[in-house]
Write a structure and sequence with these properties.
Elements: H1 18-23, E1 34-41, E2 47-49, E3 57-59, H2 61-74, E4 78-84, H3 101-112, E5 118-122, E6 136-137, E7 140-141, H4 143-160, E8 164-167, H5 174-184, E9 193-198, H6 205-211, H7 231-242, E10 247-251, H8 257-267, E11 271-275, H9 277-288, H10 294-308, E12 312-315, H11 318-324
Parallel strand pairs: 1-3, 1-4, 1-12, 4-5, 5-8, 9-10, 10-11, 11-12
Antiparallel strand pairs: 2-3, 6-7
Bound molecules: ligand PBG.
Length: 325
């Protein structure tokens, strides 16, 4: 460390012009690091706006192809698909139906845009009539029975052509369960990105309108983590890696910058962070009311997530951010 001091040292020298500032910029956003979450619904020619998330829509598979082409043209890292089923039931059966909406969407988009990385979100909450992320027994989510069904979700998505599966349910042992199911079905090569440290967060509110996945009773606190815990988040990540997760995720992103940093330092594995619906909606709503400059707030929040240590960011801003860089 240099011992030079003011007036020899003047940090403002490197801030004087845009060219100098550009030269010393430490953190960069690259389109390949951005993953775009998309919501798919049955039908044709459907593009239905989500009120709580301006700029976000539910699309039918044919419209999804247009978004997939846009994602590929921008060089995005990929898209992650969430499904709105035709009907919900107690076990979320459309989630693991070979002809379910996500399986259909994966086949359609991979046929049209084969070079695009397509990720399947593996969960039951959009598909169950009670809205929880697993099946119920005695009023709570039955862990092991849910893991069995999640394995089936992953395998049907893999058969449809998904490049990567991403379990977001927070059941114990689900990465091991999904790994075993994939391997047995001939998909030993298919990587898993686990939502490893996922908190029971208020910031998922707008997503539940987009995906129609609000729990019909209670909340998700018996399976998602409480936001007060950091050591537990590291245990969750460590367990998922031990079970075979290839990429681990921290979610939400901006409220968890400390955990993103800690996870990057403690584990060094590829790390994703999810800038969730509420983080997106806050910026959009404030900008609509003239309270924030939207492009700058978007850029600053995404850069902060990268600077904290995330290699990959899931964000509804993905195409707009990629156009801006
Ligand atoms: C479903 C799931 C949720 C999100 C991603 N997958 C909602 C939840 O857990 O309630 C939230 C994403 C967002 O808010 O943008 N398990």
């Amino acid at each position: 460390m240099s011992s030079a001091q003011f007036p020899t040292v003047r940090l403002r020298r490197l801030r004087r012009t845009p060219a100098l500032r550009r030269l010393v910029q430490e953190t960069h956003l690259v389109p390949s690091q951005l993953v775009w979450p998309l919501f798919v619904t049955h039908g044709e020619g459907v593009r239905r706006p989500v009120t709580a998330m301006p700029g976000v829509t539910q699309v039918s598979p044919d419209e999804l192809v247009k978004d997939g082409e846009r994602a590929a043209a921008l060089g995005l890292g990929g898209v992650i698909l969430f499904g709105i089923p035709a009907a919900k039931d107690a076990t979320g059966s459309e989630a693991y139906d070979e002809r379910g909406i996500v399986q259909e969407a994966i086949r359609t988009v991979k046929r049209a845009v084969p070079q695009l990385l397509v990720i399947g979100d593996v969960c039951l909450c959009e598909y169950t009539d009670h809205g929880h992320c697993g099946v119920l027994r005695d009023g709570d989510v039955d862990n092991d029975a849910s893991v069995y069904l999640l394995g089936k979700v992953a395998v049907t998505q893999a058969r449809a052509g998904a490049d990567l599966v991403a379990p977001s349910d927070m059941m114990d042992g689900r990465v091991a369960g999904i790994r075993k199911a994939l391997d047995a079905a001939g998909f030993a090569h298919l990587p898993i990105m686990s939502y490893a440290a996922k908190f029971a967060s208020a910031f998922y509110g707008p997503f539940r309108e987009a995906a129609g996945s609000t729990p019909q009773f209670g909340d998700r606190q018996t399976y998602q983590m409480q936001p007060a815990n950091a050591d537990e988040a590291m245990r969750e990540i460590g367990l998922d890696l031990a079970e075979g997760a290839d990429i681990v995720m921290v979610k939400p992103a901006l409220p968890c910058l400390d955990l993103i940093r800690r996870a990057k330092e403690e584990f060094g594995s590829p790390l994703a962070a999810y800038q969730v619906s509420g983080e997106y909606a806050m910026i959009k709503a404030a900008a609509e009311r003239g309270m924030l400059d939207e492009p700058r707030a978007m850029w600053e929040s995404l850069t902060a997530i990268r600077r904290a240590g995330a290699d990959i960011i899931l964000t509804y801003f993905a195409p707009v951010a990629a156009e801006a860089v």
